[in-house]
Amino acid sequence: MVREDEVEKEEPPAPSKRRIFDPPAYDPPSGPPARSGPWMEALRGATKVYYEDDVVKLVYDGYPKARKHLLGLAPKGSPLYDVKSVTDLAPKHLDALREFHRRCFECAEHFDESFRVGYHSDPSMNWLHCHVVSDDFDSKRITKKKHYLSFATDFFLDANDLETCLLKEEKDATSSLRTELQRRASTVQGADLTCFHCHKRLPTFSALKAHLPCSKMKKKKKKKTKESPPAAAAVAAAKE
After folding, report:
1. pLDDT of 240 strictly over 90
2. Which residues are CB-neighbours of 59 under 8 A, at least 6 positions away?
């Protein structure tokens, strides 16, 4: 008789890395969409769609805060469609949210740039929307300090961290996503103007705007330098 501890246990299958969709080329509109209703409801109005299926509706942000900036919305029929704000999310939404985020992350990976995927802790517009935004923050639409801080500080809640918050809330009734969002929303008050890439403090908003592109470029070059030595070593070895 084979003892239970001698039975070879099967490992769970690794998650599939198959692409769900092939994102189209990034082709933003020349300006913000026309708006007839109140600002808070603008996301339910007309805006240029980047990609849509039964899980996510990705649209171009009408006021992009970076070179690439999309918003992930819940399409009609989605369990997330009637969620008015990130503050209304609950553990029951986790399954739908994971698929929703998966689409957003795959879109970001397609652009082959460093991106942030997540939410403002105190959104200014109704209806759940996930920001898919490149972290260069190089945009003429960033005209105020709060525009930058809302993406470059803890005010911004990464999608993965949001899922973690909901998992904790599911297991522990004393843990609350709303409490975490309130804490994060308060951090932006009086926050320093610090470069998202090199963490240098800048004295003025205009100094920060001038500094960001240079810092992003240096970060990119540094990353390429780190990745290049193994390739160079392989070439050298092949010549020997």
Report:
1. no
2. 43, 47, 48, 49, 50, 70, 71, 73
What's the first-to-final CA gap in the chain, in angstroms?
A: 58
**Helices marked H in the chain:** 94-110, 145-152, 159-171, 177-187, 205-239
Proportion of the chain in helix, strand, coil states, percent, rounded to 5: 40, 10, 45
Structure tokens belonging to residue 134: 């490149």
13 falls in which pLDDT band (50, 70, 90)? Answer: very low
Instruction: Give CA–CA dist 112/109, Å, rounded.
Output: 5
Tokens matching residue 73: 């919305």
Tokens of 166: 């909901």
The token pair at 123 is: 């959104």
* Angstrom distances, CA of residue 123 to CA of 32, 48, 127: 18, 21, 9
Q: What is the mean pLDDT of residues 2-16?
A: 46
3 state SS of 157 = strand
pLDDT for residue 7: 44
Per the CB < 8 A criterion, the answer to whether 120 and 85 are in contact is no
Calpha distance 21→91 (Å, rounded):
27
In the block, residue with structure tokens 């009086």: 190
- CA–CA separation, 1 and 95 (whole Å): 41
The sign of the torsion formed by the CA atoms of 152, 154, 156, 160 equals positive
Pairing mode, strands 115-120 and 69-73 = unpaired
Q: pLDDT for 18-29, tens place per residue?
A: 566 787 899 999
Give per-residue pLDDT as tens, 27-72.
999 988 887 788 899 998 878 999 999 999 999 999 999 999 999 9
How distant, in Å, are the alpha carbons of 10, 65, 123, 159 from that of 216? 45, 15, 26, 23
